[in-house]
From TrEMBL, chains A, B, C, D:
Entry protein name: TetR family transcriptional regulator
Top-rank taxon, per record: Bacteria
SUPFAM superfamilies assigned: Homeodomain-like (SSF46689), Tetracyclin repressor-like, C-terminal domain (SSF48498)
Pfam families linked to this entry: TetR_N (PF00440)
Regions recorded as binding DNA: 42-61
Boundaries of every HTH tetR-type domain copy: 19-79
Ranges in coiled-coil conformation: none
Record key words, sorted: DNA-binding
InterPro entries assigned: DNA-bd_HTH_TetR-type_CS (IPR023772), Homeodomain-like_sf (IPR009057), HTH-type_Tx_Regulator (IPR050624), HTH_TetR (IPR001647), Tet_transcr_reg_TetR-rel_C_sf (IPR036271)
GO molecular function terms listed in the Swiss-Prot or TrEMBL record: DNA binding
Length: 212, 212, 212, 212
DNA sequence: AATGAATGAGACTTCATTCAT
DNA sequence: CATGAATGAAGTCTCATTCAT
């Protein structure tokens, strides 16, 4: 499946440091990696799809894994942002910030992110399951700053009595399960990602995490 | 990582049609496929880990993919069961069956299933992302009978007013997202799967799917 | 240049631990390595010359360097023997052992050895110049036992007053320079290795190392 | 190992026809060729070590082998000089010229030459073993004029009765074996090249070639 | 049935060389 | 003239699969 125009525009932003030909390689690699998986993809096929000589891959990315890393790194780095959305940041410490607003902004933001990077997300996901190194990077990115930011904010909500008093792990899992379920259905099973569907998921999460 | 004793006992049941030597191959293949992914695993490594000659793989399983299919088929076939748990079946049509009981039994059952087949689930999951054929089989298994069974039961609950009035897709996604999130955390990120954690997930799902 | 019949008989003894097909590979590799050097030889050419599939090289010898090592190891191990020729051993401690006899037996023995392993010697020599690892192995083989054996015997000859009183290094260099010069002329410049030529070299060494 | 200052000064003389940038390439190539051998060296590494673009190699030296030839040619041309040292020339036809003087001057001169061109000598040596073309050039340089000059002078010494009456091949081999043994020990095995060591080698050669 | 040696296509990668800038 | 990106042939090595024993 070829990248959509939107994807290509978005990827153009992610890979600004690369030359035009390098971008061709990256675009092609994203396509094939997302379709068949990293291990089942040959550099020959990538080169052919990019319309360049195979050697280019190695002069720019050192080796096949270097190409993979160049692709997934920017997405990995943005997957668990160190800072929350400005809107949330500005209102969270004010007493009128509801759980509903918090979760809505949070989940919407991540859905937009995941959808914008659909193809790369597929690759990251597949490697997450198969590659210990990638898994470690994800865990690291998660714990490094995101965890602290989130737990800080969740604590505020807990103290205000609008959030269920569970361990943060369970709360975060609930949020991410819903978000991921939505995206995976969209990415792999042609399920819609329209406003109503998203709203149901957000609504489900809000209810799930509200105290009884 | 080697299979646990529980896994091996469970797998012994799944693969009763195979000879002892074939089971050795299957056990070994499950281990390596789950660890590194199908594409990154060589038949030589499987044979070595099983302690048999490489040729044995081909005499019974035709080829590498045949071995994969032999492994994932029984799990695929049970992943979306055509019939619900006896307890649910017996009570669902009675008016005192609560959403809470329904979801608790349903989710508990799938968690038990997924956990019992942890290694194979990893393999199925990875192939789901990378292999169109496997994805089609999953979709097929899902829609064939499970969908009808579930929608029938969910309809009953909806009519009784204890279930939110959303499309079945959204309801099923909510259930499966929670369940999968729990299992994936357990399988890939060393998260616990103890009673409290499971209860929180189930509780979250119940709240999520209850009408306001 | 193909191996001579003598070489092949000799090599059959050196490589007894290998199967027939492995020996074919070794014979072919010796030929090409000796002719063009290790680095300039492709495994494809070796396989073609041996009449086997290229993969065989890797299943038996791990990699290209493994094949080189299999070839040079037995020769390296015999190049600087830990024990001298029986004849020398038996007579050296007797008072009538002359320097002439000592050197004649010693040099003749090494010439026979070097000539019998002509092709492999070429390979060893080339690697000696280009590969630090091989150089270390040679130095190690030299110092491990050969040095002690030789210096012990040379000491006896010195004490008897029939050997020039130089450092052992200089004496050994004189012996090996002559021997090597003879062999290299034979191997690379089509010079003869007949009795008269050898006798002149031995005679030169005897005179060179006799006290004035 | 980088070139010593002496080497660089010496090389500056050998490669006067080249521009500064070309000399940088030559210096770098000498280093790497001497260390790993011609075949195992990439032009990319040479360019990197020289601090120039890879294309420069090709604009002046045509190709990799052209670079090798540019390096070894001046040394090959001087290895077997057509004319002997002035001192020898002037005195050889006089009756008081001793074998001792002859060999001392001759060997000292070659040792100085070989030592001054140590790195290039390593390259020449390695190619001598692996490359038929280089071997032919050496043989040609040897036979072209050096052989005639030497045999002429050796004949004088023979007639005067101060030189052993062997074929010239054997005499020249004795001289060159000793000289080469000295240099090789110095180049590859960290052996000393001090006055005493050299004197022993020269002394050995004199004795070896004196009539009994 | 079982073995694992053998095969050869094809994977990843290197590298001498070219050529547009 | 200088650069180094680009090329693609060729190299090393892997691996699914076959088949003689």
């Amino acid at each position: 499946m070829a990248n959509s125009t939107d994807d290509m525009l978005h990827q153009a932003q992610l890979f600004n440091d690369f030359t035009a030909k390098q971008k061709l390689i990256i675009i092609a690699a994203i396509d094939v990696f997302a379709e068949k998986g990293y291990a089942a993809t040959s550099t020959k096929e990538i080169a052919a799809r990019a319309g360049v000589a195979e050697g280019n891959i190695y002069s720019r990315f050192t080796n096949k894994r270097g190409l993979l890393n160049a692709i997934i790194t920017p997405v990995l780095d943005q997957m668990f942002p160190a800072e929350l959305d400005d809107f949330i940041k500005s209102r969270l410490n004010q007493d009128y910030m509801s759980l509903e607003t918090f979760l809505t902004v949070l989940i919407q933001d991540r859905i937009t992110f995941l959808q914008s990077n659909a193809q790369i997300i597929k690759i990251v996901l597949s490697e997450l399951l198969n590659d210990t190194q990638v898994r470690k990077r994800v865990i690291n990115n998660f714990t490094a700053q995101y965890w602290q930011t989130m737990t800080h904010d969740l604590t505020v909500l807990k103290q205000r009595g609008v959030l269920v008093d569970w361990p943060f792990e369970d709360i975060l899992r609930a949020i991410w399960s819903t978000t991921s379920g939505l995206i995976l259905g969209f990415l792999y099973f042609n399920q819609p990602l329209d406003a109503e569907t998203v709203n149901h998921s957000i609504s489900a999460t809000i209810k799930a995490l509200s105290p009884k």
